[in-house]
């Protein structure tokens, strides 16, 4: 069970990409899920994608600052982790004001970790992404390493 979470423990450099080309949110979720599968973070990509999309049906995970935080609590998750993509071009995502999204942070949450740690991580990331200056820096990061460092340095729990 995750009670104390450090972002660098749940985000690996190999799960951060910049300039991802996608035409819709399903492509983004599929791509990030493939990264998680390659790292053995999930054990069934299609099952995990199904669970994430089922969560998407419950309410918007996109924000009006071009950021989305989709997440899936799933039996297909071996270890609670996250994957991040900054998109080359915005894609449509359900937000309050129907703003297209350019930064996606996908959480893969193990069923056993769906308690306080999960909430703390989501809250920490949400607070950081509520800061326009932080979001601007994330949007401008030139490399996946720079994007990784910005996320780790701005989302302490």
From TrEMBL:
It comes from the Bacteria. GO terms for molecular function: DNA binding; protein-N(PI)-phosphohistidine-sugar phosphotransferase activity. Keywords: DNA-binding, Phosphoprotein, Phosphotransferase system, Sugar transport, Transferase, Transport. One of its GO terms (cellular component) is membrane. Residues 9-154 form the PTS EIIA type-2 domain. GO terms for biological process: phosphoenolpyruvate-dependent sugar phosphotransferase system. PANTHER family: PTS SYSTEM FRUCTOSE-LIKE EIIA COMPONENT, PTS SYSTEM FRUCTOSE-LIKE EIIA COMPONENT-RELATED. The keyword Nucleotide-binding does not apply. This is DNA-binding protein. It holds the Pfam family PTS_EIIA_2.
């Amino acid at each position: 069970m995750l009670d104390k979470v450090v972002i660098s423990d749940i985000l690996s450099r190999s799960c951060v990409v910049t300039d991802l080309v996608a035409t819709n949110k399903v492509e983004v979720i599929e791509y990030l899920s493939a990264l998680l599968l390659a790292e053995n973070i999930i054990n069934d990509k299609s099952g995990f994608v199904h669970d994430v999309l089922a969560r998407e049906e419950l309410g918007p995970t996109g924000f009006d600052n071009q950021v989305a935080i989709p997440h899936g609590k799933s039996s297909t998750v071996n270890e609670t982790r996250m994957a991040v993509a900054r998109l080359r071009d915005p894609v449509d995502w359900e937000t309050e004001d129907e703003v297209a999204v350019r930064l996606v942070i996908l959480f893969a949450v193990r069923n056993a970790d769906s308690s306080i740690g999960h909430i703390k991580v989501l809250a920490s990331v949400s607070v950081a992404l509520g800061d326009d200056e932080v979001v601007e820096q994330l949007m401008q990061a030139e490399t996946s390493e720079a994007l990784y460092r910005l996320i780790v340095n701005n989302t302490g729990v």
